[in-house]
Amino acid sequence: MSDQPRIALPKNIGQTLKYLDHDDLAALRAAVEDEWARRGNGAATRADASAATAPARSKAGASKLPVGKVSLIKASALSGMKPAAIARTLRLSLAEVNRVLNAERK
């Protein structure tokens, strides 16, 4: 490994991970678990890892919307658009728009 260049991770990796959508985060987790197993360090079981991350998912809202679309919903609401108009414009359900807006208020 000494002949390979070292890869620098962000100093705020925990904060950076918050911006990954669920699918990307799951792919990253699977790759990390595979690497731990390859190195022989023993990876945490999926049940243990899921239990540890469950509270974080409920706080962030279980929405699978991309970060950009969530930002657009919030900006549209701040500009004065009503949730129904935002849902129509972005072709989303009213429930998804309300979930994003309610998560912002909490």
The low-pLDDT segments are 54-62
Using only C-alpha atoms, the radius of gyration works out to: 18 Å
Query: What average pLDDT do the residues reach?
Result: 79
Helix-strand makeup class: mainly alpha
Task: Please report the total strand number as a whole number.
Answer: 0
Descriptive account of the structure:
- With 106 residues, this protein is an all-alpha fold.
- It folds into 2 domains: 13-60, no CATH class; 67-105.
- Helices cover 66% and strands 0% of the residues.
- It is built from 6 helices and no strands.
- The radius of gyration is 18 Å and the shape is elongated.
- Residues 54-62 have low confidence and may be disordered.
Layout of helices and strands, plus pairs?
Elements: H1 13-17, H2 22-39, H3 46-60, H4 67-78, H5 83-90, H6 94-105
Helix pairs in contact: 4-6, 5-6
Q: What does this entry show, briefly?
A:
With 106 residues, the chain is mainly α.
